[in-house]
Design a protein that fits this description.
Shape: globular
Order of helices and strands: HHHHHHHHHHHH
Length: 283
């Protein structure tokens, strides 16, 4: 009796089944991730804080440099060729920490709330979810940091003009645009790296500890080891390579392209590990 009833129910479901015309496409997954990331309040606050820090510290660095100058130093030309690009990107040293946390909470928040199950149910292949989230978050970080760095540069120039410096006396040239582009690229790749670490670890606290360890602890440890081969590895650390891209005068050349390749390799390797982990384990 039970077998007959089950067979009848299965036949009824087959008779009423209608194939859906909708297919899961990568463009649809991108739109979904855009909606999710732009509607989470904590991510919005993290981006706002990062923008304020990046732009504000640049202006503050210029203000501190000029305000503490000896009396008459500006008039005597002590600040000829003032490095506006170096001062305008000073906020990167702090804002990189905020962007690292941003990348972590963008994925671990879903694991904490259980929303990741819904995402992976809607996209059973899983990898498009990770790829779309990395693309959307990287684009958001690139645009936000680029705007913040541009504001920081403009604010630094404004502060210098307010102290009586002539625009011709400031060392701007191509340094400022390249510093903005390099800094925004670094922060975008750093955000994607932190996202991948969050997907790999699935713990907000653990992923933040790893990301900040890479940014703060690892360079310090490498700098303290008194072996030449260890010191030669220093340029291949993520923060060292990333900050090299935003240095004044970092126009496309051997050092710039090496720094870009190293900076891109870190999130690439982390994404490969996160993708392998997502395919092997349950949500």
């Amino acid at each position: 009796m039970t077998t007959t009833t089950s067979a009848a129910e299965a036949e009824s479901r087959r008779a009423t089944f209608r194939p859906s015309q909708h297919r899961v496409t990568f463009a649809g997954v991108l739109r979904s991730e855009w909606v999710k990331l732009t509607s989470v309040r904590s991510i919005g606050w993290a981006i706002a804080i990062a923008v304020v820090i990046t732009a504000g510290l640049g202006a503050l660095a210029g203000l501190a440099t000029l305000a503490t100058a000896p009396e008459g130093a500006i008039e005597q030309g002590a600040f000829a060729d003032m490095p506006v690009a170096a001062l305008g990107t000073a906020g990167l040293l702090v804002s990189q920490l905020v962007f690292a946390v941003l990348g972590v909470i963008a994925i671990t928040g879903e694991y904490g709330s259980g929303q990741i199950r819904s995402s992976l149910t809607a996209v059973p292949r899983r990898l498009p979810v990770l790829g779309a989230k990395a693309l959307v978050l990287g684009l958001i970080a690139f645009v936000a940091s680029g705007i913040a760095l541009a504001i920081g540069m403009a604010s630094t120039i404004g502060v210098a003009l307010a102290f009586g410096l002539e625009l011709d006396a400031m060392d701007i040239g191509l340094d400022a645009p390249f510093a903005i582009l390099g800094g925004a690229t670094y922060l975008a790749l750093l955000t994607v790296f932190s996202l991948a670490i969050g997907a790999l670890v699935r713990s907000g606290a653990g992923a933040i500890a790893i990301a900040l360890g890479v940014l703060l602890v690892l360079p310090t440890v490498v700098g303290l080891v008194p072996f030449e081969f260890v010191q030669e590895a220093s340029p291949y650390l993520l923060p060292n390579a990333g900050l090299t891209m935003s240095l004044p005068g970092a126009e496309p050349g051997e050092d710039f392209w090496r720094a870009l390749a190293v900076t891109a390799a870190w999130p690439a390797v982390a994404l490969l590990g996160a993708a392998a982990a997502m395919l092997r384990r349950d949500a």
